Amino acid sequence: GAVVSQHPSRVICKSGTSVKIECRSLDFQATTMFWYRQFPKKSLMLMATSNEGSKATYEQGVEKDKFLINHASLTLSTLTVTSAHPEDSSFYICSASDWQGVDSPLHFGNGTRLTVT
Amino acid sequence: DAKTTQPTSMDCAEGRAANLPCNHSTISGNEYVYWYRQIHSQGPQYIIHGLKNNETNEMASLIITEDRKSSTLILPHATLRDTAVYYCIVSATSGSRLTFGEGTQLTVNP
Question: Chain B within 8 Å of A113 (Cβ-Cβ)?
Answer without folding.
Answer: yes
